[in-house]
Specification:
This protein is α/β, with parallel strands linked by helices. The protein has a single domain (33-289), classed as 3-Layer(aba) Sandwich (Rossmann fold), CATH 3.40.50.1820. The protein has 13 helices and 8 strands. β5 (132-136), α5 (139-152) and β6 form a beta-alpha-beta unit. 37% of the residues are buried.
């Protein structure tokens, strides 16, 4: 038995060594176009990628898109054109540690920092004194909750929020079921450094995954912001979501936030509704925006 394990180890080591030196794949033409259509601004010595598109001439409305984990602003590409037909400006960013933005290490990633980056971007664009509509997903929901808390408490430099639409995020830690890989990485242990090292995506590292623990620690602050706000609030929900499962999540949402409106998409729509059902997602969002 001991010799068998030794042989496996001798074979595995060179394979891992080769794997770790494989260069990252080239960007697809679609991602290259997405990046070339964007810009960067600097926030506390970090380069942050964003897109700012001019849209409908007859509208003065602005929408800011906050993406999920572990992806990027490209999550919104399927509804981008539809949003530009309704809003005067459509703005999206890659949070630090994600997409085309810088991925510093070591670094203490936090929801508070990401919210400050959103404020910094709108300040950079000269929009801090204008009301914006927030459209968020997953990780971005929590960032939106922190921005809402700052707005409700009149924090200096906070974003003026006209409306907030959430989608398939871990709003309630008690109904959030992270995937096994997320649990392993956020909690550490012997296997965590190995998986992190082998992953092509640095945003799987423990630093970013601490947002799961931050949601638990700051639940009262972030759920409380939703409960006390007078800002129009909406949820677009893909009910097949394994991370925020139905009916557990939706029942709690309606119980805790009865003043919020809700759009439940088709039964087969899961955790990324804006990608799985872009037309249904876009129509649900525009119906919400046009309702007030």
């Amino acid at each position: 038995m001991r010799e068998w394990w030794l042989q496996v180890g001798l074979l595995t080591v060179p394979l891992i060594a080769v794997y770790l030196h494989i260069p990252p794949p080239k960007l697809s033409p679609a991602l290259q176009l997405w990046r070339s259509s964007g810009s960067y601004f600097t926030f506390q010595n970090q380069n942050i990628f964003y897109r700012d598109a001019s849209g409908a001439v007859g509208s003065s409305d602005i929408v800011v898109l906050l993406h999920g984990f572990p992806t990027s602003s490209y999550d919104w590409w399927k509804i981008w054109e539809g949003l530009t037909q309704r809003f005067n400006r459509v703005i999206a960013l890659d949070f630090v540690g994600f997409g085309f933005s810088d991925k510093p290490r070591p670094h203490q990633y936090s929801i508070f920092e990401q919210a400050s980056i959103v404020e910094g971007l709108l300040d950079h664009l000269g929009l801090l004194n204008q009301r914006v509509n927030l459209l968020s997903h997953d990780y971005g929901d929590t960032v939106a909750q922190e921005l809402l808390h700052r707005y409700e408490h009149n924090t200096t430099g906070s974003v003026l929020i006209n409306s907030l639409c959430l989608s398939n995020g871990g709003i309630f830690p008690e109904t959030h079921h992270p995937r096994l890989i997320q649990t392993i990485l956020k909690d550490g242990g012997l296997i965590s450094p190995i998986i992190t090292r082998l992953s092509n995506y640095f945003f799987f590292a423990r630093g970013i995954l601490q947002f799961i623990n931050q949601r638990k620690k700051h639940r009262d602050r972030w759920v409380g912001a939703l409960q006390s706000t007078s800002v129009p609030l909406h949820l677009i929900y893909g009910p097949l979501d394994p991370v925020n499962p139905h009916p557990e999540f939706l029942q709690l949402y309606k119980q805790v936030l009865p003043m919020s409106t809700v759009s439940v998409l088709d039964d087969h729509i899961s955790h990324y509704p804006q990608l799985e059902d872009p037309l249904g997602f876009l129509n649900s969002y525009l119906n919400f925006i046009n309702s007030f």
